[in-house]
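[job 4471] stage=fold_predict status=RUNNING
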Amino acid sequence: MLFGKKKDKKPSKIALMDDKINEDYVEEKVTKIKDQDVEIVMANEEAISEKLSNASPLRKYAELGKIMFAMLKDVKKGSYKTVPWFTIASIAVALLYVLNPFDLVPDFIPGVGYIDDLAVLSISMGWIETDLHKYLDWRLTETEKS
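[job 4471] inference complete, writing structure tokens
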């Protein structure tokens, strides 16, 4: 009768995270991104890349992080122009959230510290996946031209 009996306990903070980190939360943050925030992401590329590479739960996003930074650089140089601002803002939110050590679940908590980072990255990736594929196709075309 493990599942039949209802418990009156309050849910843990981790269980409540689904309510705090959802698409609406991330979308709200994306709509508030400014050019200066993108500059902060670019200035912290090394720290963000290191965190993505060294935190085992985030490691699968290390290559995606490189692609996101490459896209931001090409947009900033003006060589890649077919990316919507929403995509740039989504990348900035995701990477700034990963960089921030004081997020909803602090990263130093073993086992669960990166759950919120994963949630924000996953939500953002779901939104921008098509644009990332378009960017990679463009890069391949540019490489073939060279």
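[job 4471] summary: Helices lie at 13-20, 23-31, 35-43, 45-54, 62-77, 85-99, 115-145.
[job 4471] exit 0
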